[in-house]
């Protein structure tokens, strides 16, 4: 990190995003797409639901991202007996000060990993997701602001359902992205063996940008521009989810805004000051997939919501002129 005055700009977004990606890739092998999606969530001030089986490196990924930002990190293991106070914190009576003192919980970290969120009870899920939406918690009728940047990485095992409390659609809507990491390729898995044979790369990871500077990058992303045709293309995809026969409940306006913000962040990471239709096509399954409710027939047939979104995207005409003509600089 340089010592000169930091001036947020779109060029800075791409530069720092590349440095963060390379830094995290020193620990996480072969998951550049996942790293970029986490950066999209961070720059959009959103949260991520990671769906995958245990042992895929989700905890290491979250720690590597936190270290790259010089951000505080906490991890919470989801269990049925986890209470809201275990995450938020609790007020206790301090006899020395002769008053009640608030002891903050792990929720006040800048990057919080909630492992197996679907093992926590609905009461605890609601407390966490309320904080995610409002960026604050209320303790003893006093509002306490959460730190910035603030990213919740929640994980759930999509296979094991016994003893779980699945997140309802209204709460899933609080996550900007739903992402699957997937198994590594054979060559990548061999590289994992070699890289972790003698040392732990995570221990030597250094920050490449400060958390304060990253908040500036979040503001800079808002400079990304939209052509009217591209905006209408995004709206056409969202509105198509509300009249599709395979979908019982379509994307809400909050989902529309989530896709809008995510596309701006993705364009900035790619070094552009404008959104392309391909950005919308690429991000739609990650942003909209968990925001629809498929009909009972389609759920019984095992159709994944991301597949339905992909099918919808293929039916919407792409504004070709918008690809060739970027918007004029304001």
From TrEMBL:
Domain of life the protein comes from: Bacteria
GO molecular function: ATP binding; ATP hydrolysis activity
InterPro entries, alphabetized: AAA+_ATPase, ATPase_AAA-3, CbbQ/NirQ/NorQ/GpvN, ChlI/MoxR_AAA_lid, P-loop_NTPase
Keyword Ligase carried by entry: no
AAA+ ATPase domain span: 44-185
UniProt keyword Nucleotide-binding, yes or no: yes
Alphabetical keyword list: ATP-binding, Nucleotide-binding
Pfam family name, one: AAA_lid_2
Database matches in Gene3D superfamilies: Magnesium chelatase subunit I, C-Terminal domain (1.10.8.80), P-loop containing nucleotide triphosphate hydrolases (3.40.50.300)
Protein family: Belongs to the MoxR family.
Name of the featured protein: ATPase
Lineage: Bacteria, Bacillati, Chloroflexota, Ktedonobacteria, Ktedonobacterales
């Amino acid at each position: 990190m340089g010592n000169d005055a930091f001036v947020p700009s779109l060029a800075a977004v791409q530069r720092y995003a590349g440095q963060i990606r390379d830094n995290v890739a020193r620990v996480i092998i072969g998951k550049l797409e996942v790293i970029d999606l986490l950066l999209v969530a961070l720059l959009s001030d959103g949260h991520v639901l990671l769906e995958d089986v245990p042992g895929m490196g989700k905890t290491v990924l979250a720690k590597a991202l936190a270290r790259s930002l010089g951000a505080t990190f906490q991890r919470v293991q989801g269990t049925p007996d986890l209470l809201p106070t275990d995450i938020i914190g609790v007020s206790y009576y301090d006899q020395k000060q002769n008053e009640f003192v608030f002891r903050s919980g792990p929720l006040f970290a800048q990057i919080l990993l909630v492992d197996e969120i679907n093992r926590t009870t609905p009461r605890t899920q609601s407390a966490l997701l309320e904080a995610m939406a409002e960026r604050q918690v209320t303790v003893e009728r006093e509002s306490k602001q959460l730190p910035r940047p603030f990213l919740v990485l929640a994980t759930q095992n999509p296979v094991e359902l016994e003893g779980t409390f699945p997140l309802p659609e209204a709460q899933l809507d609080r996550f900007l992205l739903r992402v699957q990491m997937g198994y590594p390729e054979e060559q990548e898995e061999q590289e994992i063996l070699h890289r972790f044979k003698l040392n732990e790369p995570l221990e030597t990871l250094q920050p490449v940008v400060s958390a304060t500077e990253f908040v500036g990058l979040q503001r800079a992303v808002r400079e990304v521009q939209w052509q009217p045709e591209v905006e209408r293309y995004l709206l056409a995809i969202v509105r198509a989810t509300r009249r599709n026969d395979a979908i019982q409940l379509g994307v809400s306006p909050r989902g529309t805004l989530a896709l809008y913000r995510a596309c701006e962040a993705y364009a900035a990471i790619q070094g552009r000051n404008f959104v392309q239709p391909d950005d919308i096509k690429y991000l739609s399954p990650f942003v909209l997939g968990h925001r629809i409710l498929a009909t009972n027939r389609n759920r019984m047939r095992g159709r994944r919501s991301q597949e339905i979104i992909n099918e919808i995207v293929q039916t919407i005409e792409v504004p070709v002129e918008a690809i060739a003509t970027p918007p004029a600089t304001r």
